[in-house]
Design brief:
The complex is a heterodimer of chains A (661) and B (537). Chain A contains 27 helices and 2 strands. Chain A is mainly α. With 537 residues, chain B is mainly alpha-helical. Chain B has one domain. Chain B is globular, with a radius of gyration of 23 Å. The chains are: A mainly alpha (661), B mainly alpha (537). At the A-B interface, helix 1, strand 1, helix 6, helix 7 and helix 25 of A face helix 7, helix 9, helix 10, helix 12 and helix 14 of B.
Chain lengths: 661, 537
């Protein structure tokens, strides 16, 4: 035992020496100067907003939403300044560490709470603060008549702060804090309209799936600590790149992936995302499309050295990505609820990112690039969906839409840009990112490029079908409105953010993609794309194939959902359609595999009282019933059976000891 | 086996002479014991009107003075209260004043202050407190009125609490099995009485008290039987001798050692509510007056874990490998049963009771690290948990319906909308119990689990993984309480939050702030716990 401890201690000290050397070599140890030293404001400003709004109570009702929005923009300004300062430095000096305080020091174990401002985290900071602030603005219009909007804005600010902490953290432990924070904010916002019990259930479901994921992340952190004696990025990733034990790396990688699956709604933990659409639409746009759900991709890309040291884990990442991208796309084809269809699409698009992230250096930059593009076009489409719902009395059934292009011209136009972008029609932004992922998926040897490449390629075709279906059912074809709706365009507070996002979806890809600006920006973090890696199918052929498939998908959707009439009630549909409507029976599988055994376990252990906490609704009757049965139990001479339990326990354990020796 | 002849009757010592007693080292103990005795005199002689105020002041002053005396005692660490065994001329020391002991004493004293302040709650002056002056009557009956008119007061709870605190401080400080047993009884007897004094739901409380007493006596019997076996093995009850005997002892004697060690542990594990010795916990936590429950949950746990650490790390140190398996089993059972059963609880106090069982399991994981790091982590955990739990029970005592505590979960629905501050504080404490980052609960769980993984070998890793899984289960329980408070609608006959006096407010505030502070800036206490983690032998 003692020797083991010693070996561990000495090996961990060797590692940290190594990591220290590595850190200076990579320029990680740069002290923050100038505006960069104030990067903590990024987290502090929105956090302050949340605190003021939550603690201030009703007094802040009047100015609360505006204050929250202003603070979010403030964070964006800080982010932009830090970004400009970063541009002013050479590529090697751009990563800057900021120590905030010593968080935990226990003996040799030290964790300092600090920020890592590098190229990767800056991409996220700009995306989160910019899109986040736009959505704050949109929410002022969208939530105008909600009596509780102060709380809503407080949670939004809380989310922005936690998300920024997640991407800026310099250690897995601090990342975990942000990770839990965004989970909390997401949970609070999904259940924001909790007067509807179904919504509260949805919030619970999201919570469960996320807990399973978080469990993975926390186990990964424990194993890291055990293996490396540290949990900060510099030490862990530095050591992972060199002399790491592959078994440990695989374990850490798989556990990190489990965390990523929970947060990013990847197979097999994807079931919560559709239900999470119960939250207000701006929340779906910000948290469940543009930012939080992409945290898993961030985690995988950030942990790149770990995955590269563990090819098995890396392969699992790709498989998970491929399954999810097809899964989401198939589910998306059958959904009639506009938000759920968009949610399925989000799942599928994140599947693309995950797949790219698992491909290694050929894919990292494109995973993040697609994430950025997706942040713009998907957020724009969600806001468009919100605008449609606003005009249609909160109706979400696309079979009741149709022909809205005349009534809501701006929404239609911005949505059209998003639609073209996600389809990957050149020169819109999705083309530059998704096509690259498809190309990267075709790189490799043996069976892999064919399986993963074809999955990505077919996924693109299905995406074109279901997104066109969504677009045509909503904006074109015959009007199928219920009698009492009078669609109208939304106010400026809502349309301007949509326009800004549409402009981004149209041009951002063109600016960053073909010019190579984005890939060279990320290169110091993600590593250079290996030379001489060519897809198994020539690139022009691939590009043509993709475009043909996309056109075919869109054409099919045109035939069925624009030219032909769409029935107001959903037809029975084929077996596949039925399955897809039910999320390919994911809930049923979960229930059969996890929930029922769990319930039986607890019930049989308690052998009573299945009311649990849910019985709370029963009110006084439950109270009296519960109390009386409890009192009866108490007065039934249980002391002797308690004593018997003790005795039996002692005997059993002594018996076990005897058997063991 | 040199000085020890296990089966022969040990020769009686010619004479025991008292030798050096370092009075400064045991000053904290003396102060608390003295205060308790003065408290008895106050009961007898002080006027009725002022008795409550005097008792509270006296108790708090005594506890704070003792806490200050810890600083003095820290400079006089070592073994003390020695007797010279006349036959062998060896010194046998009854008390070990060392880092863990003093750390536990200070913890118990500070948590004791919060506990006493919560017990002092009378909701604005002369109103009824949580205790009954005449247990045999029914609430509001003529008998009770008569008792009140005759001047029966409830201020005896304070001297009783002080005696309990004295026992608790002694418990982790004793250096032999007999002393440990005496301390166990000294801390238990006042608690049995305190548990039975609830003003509301009197029968429940008295039943709980009786049950606690019966089962406590039962577990004491195990402790004594284990002591006898260990004495048979080592020929001595002193931890130093025990440890030496184990190091030199033959394997053939394991038939005495292993069961003996485990049975002694049974007595201690009973006090922390470890499974399968936990059955009393939910009933007693529910039945006892809520301030007493909070006090027991925090301080008894601290004292008993102090004793477990000393027994495990000093007394049985060298031969630990045979009996650790028993503790591993108990730790696994405790974590799993505690967290699974907490899922279906409908009563807040029972829920917190099962939560405390689960926490006992997590702390045991730290104990089983068998390393200084583990000791530090356990010490930290106990402080963090103690502050959170005292504040949580204090809040439970405030939530009322028609004057009685509303402990059924359904009564807490919608509390967050009507009393955001109280519900917010409670929600924060729930997050700490769940081990969410930026609360003390996270740091403490991280501490024990990483200690177990770091030095506990494969067993430690298994324990930590099970621990993480179990804490994931308990997160549900706590999250549901939060959801219930903030997202459910209040029933028509909604509960009220009683306006607490300064003393309870202070306890809740300190408990909650400590939970936050130890989560954000735990370094100072982690350092202190780390430095205090060395036992003297």
């Amino acid at each position: 035992m003692g020797t083991l401890v010693q070996t561990l201690a000495s090996s961990s000290s060797t590692l940290s020496t190594y990591a220290a050397g590595l850190a200076t070599h990579e320029g990680e140890a740069h002290a923050a100067t100038g505006v960069t030293a104030y990067a903590w404001l990024l987290v502090a400003l929105p956090l302050l907003g949340a605190a003021v709004l939550l603690l201030g109570g009703r007094r802040t009702d009047r100015f609360g939403p505006v204050l929250a929005t202003a603070l979010s923009w403030g964070a964006f300004v800080v982010g932009a300044l830090v970004f400009l300062a970063m541009l002013g430095r050479g590529a090697e000096d751009r990563a800057v560490g900021i120590d905030l305080f010593d968080w935990i020091t226990a003996g040799s174990f030290k964790v300092s709470a600090g920020l890592l401002v590098d190229q990767l985290s800056m991409v996220f900071v700009l995306l989160i603060t910019f899109v986040g602030s736009l959505i704050h603005v949109y929410s002022i219009g969208y939530m105008e008549h909600d009596p509780d909007k102060r709380r809503f804005f407080a949670y939004l600010n809380l989310f922005v702060a936690a998300m920024l902490l997640l991407v800026l953290a310099n250690s897995y432990l601090l990342l975990y804090v942000g990770w839990e924070g965004v989970g909390l904010a997401s949970y609070l916002l999904i259940g924001f309209w909790n007067y509807n019990p179904a919504y509260a259930t949805a919030a619970n479901k999201a919570f469960v799936a996320n807990r399973v994921g978080d469990l993975g992340l926390s186990i990964a952190i424990m194993v890291m600590f055990f293996h490396f004696g540290a949990v900060d990025f510099a030490t862990v990733l530095g050591a992972a790149g060199s002399n790491a034990n592959q078994g440990f790396m695989t374990a850490i990688g798989l556990m990190l992936l489990l965390g990523a699956c929970g947060k990013s709604a990847q197979f097999p933990l994807q079931s919560w995302l559709g239900d999470a659409m119960a939250g207000p639409t701006p929340v779906s746009a910000l948290i469940h499309a543009a930012t939080m759900v992409t945290a898993g991709v961030y985690l995988v890309v950030r942990s790149a050295p770990i995955f590269e040291a563990a090819p098995t884990a890396q392969l699992v990442v790709v498989i998970v990505g491929a399954i999810t991208l097809l899964f989401g796309a198939i589910v998306g084809c059958a959904k009639d609820d506009i938000k759920k269809a968009l949610a399925a699409s989000t799942m599928s698009q994140i599947g693309y990112m995950m797949l790219a992230a698992g491909l290694g250096p050929v894919g990292y930059a494109f995973a993040i690039f697609h994430l950025l593009m997706h942040g713009f076009f998907k957020a724009g489409m969600f806001l468009g969906a919100g605008s449609v719902m606003h005009g249609m009395n909160d109706q979400v059934d696309m079979r009741r839409f149709g022909g809205l292009s005349g009534a809501m011209k701006l929404t239609w136009a911005t949505f059209a840009v998003g639609w073209l972008a996600i389809l990957g029609v050149p020169p819109f932004s999705g083309f530059w990112s998704k096509d690259k992922i498809i190309e990267a998926a075709f790189i490799g040897e043996g069976w892999r490029p064919w399986v993963f490449g074809l999955a990505a390629l077919i996924g693109a075709g299905i995406t074109a079908f279901y997104m066109s279906r969504l677009f045509f059912m909503t904006f074109h074809g015959k009007k199928r409105w219920t009698d009492d709706v009078h669609p109208h365009e939304s106010g400026k507070l809502m349309t301007i953010p949509m326009i800004v996002l549409a402009v981004g979806s149209a041009f951002l890809g063109l600016i960053l993609g073909p010019t190579g600006l984005f890939t060279s920006w990320l290169e110091p973090v993600t590593g250079a794309e290996p030379e001489g890696a060519h897809p198994v199918i020539p690139v022009p052929v691939l590009m043509a194939l993709t475009l043909v498939l996309v056109a075919a998908g869109a054409a099919l959707a045109w035939l069925r959902y624009w030219r032909d009439d769409v029935p107001v009630t959903a037809p029975a549909g084929s077996l596949l359609t039925q399955a897809a409507r039910k999320d390919l029976y994911q809930d049923q599988v979960n229930e059969a595999l996890l929930m029922r055994p769990g319930i039986h376990l607890t019930r049989s252990l308690v052998f009573a009282d299945s009311k649990g906490v849910d019985g709370a609704a029963g009110g006084l009757a439950a109270l009296v019933g519960g109390t009386s049965s409890r009192l009866r139990k108490l007065q039934n001479g249980f002391a002797r059976s308690y004593a018997l339990t003790m005795l039996a326990g002692v005997v059993a354990i002594l018996g076990a000891l005897w058997v063991m020796s | 086996m040199t000085a020890v002849a296990p089966l022969a009757l040990p020769t009686l010592p010619a004479a025991f002479q008292q030798s050096n007693v370092d009075y400064l080292a045991i000053l904290p103990l003396l102060i608390v014991f003295g205060t308790a005795l003065i408290g008895v005199l106050v009961e007898a002689f002080a006027s009725r009107e002022r008795r409550h105020a005097i008792q509270v002041t006296l108790a708090v002053a005594g506890l704070l003075a003792a806490a200050a005396a810890i600083i003095l005692a820290a400079k006089h660490q070592g073994l003390t209260m020695g007797l010279t065994d006349g036959s062998t001329n060896r010194q046998l020391f009854a008390l070990a004043i060392d880092g863990p002991a003093l750390f536990m004493q200070a913890t118990i004293l500070l948590l004791g202050v919060l506990g006493v302040l919560t017990m002092a709650e009378r909701f604005g002056g002369v109103g009824p407190d949580a205790f009954t002056p005449s247990g045999a009557s029914t609430p509001g009956s003529a008998t009770e009125t008569a008792a009140a008119r005759a001047g029966a007061l409830t201020s005896e709870v304070f001297p009783l609490t002080m005696f309990a605190i004295f026992g608790m401080m002694l418990f982790p400080t004793t250096n032999d099995l007999i002393g440990m047993f005496v301390a166990l009884e000294v801390l238990s007897l006042p608690l049995y009485i305190l548990s039975g004094l609830a003003r509301r739901r009197r029968l429940l409380s008295q039943e709980a008290s009786l049950k606690y007493f019966l089962l406590g006596a039962f577990s004491s019997a195990f402790f004594l039987f284990g002591t006898a076996l260990l004495y048979g093995y080592a020929g001595s009850v002193y931890f130093g001798d025990l440890s030496k005997a184990i190091a030199a002892g033959p394997l053939a004697m394991n038939g005495l050692l292993v069961p003996g060690a485990f049975l002694v542990f049974v007595g201690l594990l009973f006090k922390v509510g470890a499974v399968p010795f936990h059955a009393w916990t939910p009933d007693v936590y529910q039945g006892a007056p809520t301030p007493v429950t909070g006090f027991m949950a925090a301080c008894t746990k601290a004292a008993a874990f102090g004793a477990i650490l000393r027994l495990g790390y000093v007394g049985l140190d060298t031969g630990r490998w045979e009996w650790t398996n028993a503790l591993v089993l108990v730790a696994l059972l405790t974590m799993v049963v505690g967290s699974v059963l907490s899922v279906t609880q409908t009563d807040m106090k029972r829920l917190l009771a099962y939560s405390s069982i689960a926490h006992a399991g997590f702390i045991l994981v730290g104990v089983l690290a068998f390393d200084r790091k583990g000791v530090g982590a356990v010490l930290f955990y106990i402080v963090a948990y103690g502050f959170s739990t005292i504040a949580a029970f204090a809040i439970v005592s405030l939530v009322r319906q028609n004057g009685a505590e509303a402990t059924h979960l359904s009564q807490w629905a919608g509390l967050g909308k009507r009393f955001p501050v109280v519900a917010g504080a409670f929600a924060f404490l729930m997050l700490a119990f769940a081990g969410i980052p930026l609360t003390s609960g996270f740091v403490s769980k991280f501490g024990v689990f990483s200690a177990a993984i770091g030095t506990g070998g494969a067993t430690g890793t298994v324990l930590a993984v099970v621990g993480v899984l179990c804490s994931a289960i308990t997160v549900f329980v706590y999250a549901r309480v939060i959801v219930l408070m903030f997202f459910s609608d209040a029933p028509d006959d909604a509960v009220e939050v009683a306006i607490p006096s300064v003393s309870t407010t202070f306890s809740i505030a300190i408990g909650t702030l400590a939970t936050l502070a130890l989560g954000v800036l735990p370094s100072a206490l982690l350092d202190l716990a780390d430095r205090a983690s060395q036992f003297v032998r």
